[in-house]
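FAQ: What does a multi-protein file look like?

Like this. Sequence, then tokens, then the next protein.
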Amino acid sequence: MEAGAVAPDKKNAEELGAHLVFIDESGFLLIPPLRKTWAPRGRTPIHHHHQLHDRLSVISGISVSPHRKRLGLYFNFCWENISQKEVCCFLRYLLRHLRGPVIVIWDNGTPHKGVMIREFLRKYQRLHLENFPPYAPELNPDEGIWSQAKDTMANGRPDTLGELWWDLRDTFHDMAASQSCLRACFHQSELPSFFT
């Protein structure tokens, strides 16, 4: 971990009974990500898709429970770019599902700061926010969610945003049900291990 990085104090989080939640946002286009694939020898695979730049925005968070180190995945889909309003809705959703103190660790992006976020913090005092250092996505385990989702959906071809929404929903539900998928997000990050 680089100097200045926020290293959540594992012992203090456990003593407080606090859930740690690593949050990030991403977008998914109707133009799918391409990955290597199989084709008959001598035939270059051709992938047909629409030239539409319509997209869905997703905010997600991987939670670590304070005592059992059980992982959870929480997510919301948005039809537009994610703003402070959508971030506050997601934080409210998290607080409904997690008991006790919640420590959110995220980047210092524009939707993560401003008047609405400060008002939200005043209203929900069991929520605490911490920032990763600037330009350090490698520290955020939630980046692994985007890699896994884009790999799963690679070379696909949804025709509409509605189809993309259903494909994403199924993909995220599958990841949420798999502790090994969620642990892989932590192992691929440069965050110190929680699972020693």
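And here is the next protein:
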Amino acid sequence: MISNLYKSMVAGMAIALGGWIYLMTANPIVGAALFACGLLTVRIYNLDLFTGRIQYMVTKEFPWYYYPIILLGNFIGAALIGCVSMLLVRETATVIAANKVAQSLPIAFFKGVGCGMLMSFATNKNTPLWATVMGVAAFILAGMNHCIADMYYMIAGTTFSWTIVATILGNIAGGIIFSSPTTSNT
């Protein structure tokens, strides 16, 4: 359990670092592709990322209490990087966070579903790493909601909203929709 918490904190930090890179890149297309460094780190080191593991809910490979631990660890890791980077990216992060906060709960949910579907594809062990980059760039450029990345933006932008709950539920729904009971995912 402690190792899952550690692996999930590091995964949250990796996604937040991807968000930090995105915020520091002037070109949004290049930034979206570079954001994928976070997810590539998660895949290569087999870290516990909530949006990559939720597809296991279908196969019941892990006990129910596994998922809240991962989500908590991801949020802690994202918050740590958010606190460290906020002085450098606060202005840009505030704009993104304000857009997330302004969403209605149904919009946050459905944008979360789309991201959850793409994350299931991007984290599948059978997905080539180049396609992982494409999946990440797609959800960013489409303005979809990723609960860990959004938490990073909210911390770095010093704002918070309960829309994050709708995003989490959407990420779960999307992850389950695109889950594959016959393949193992990271």
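Q: Is there any per-entry metadata?
A: Some entries carry free-text notes. For the entry above: Residues 22 and 31 are 4 Å apart (CA to CA).
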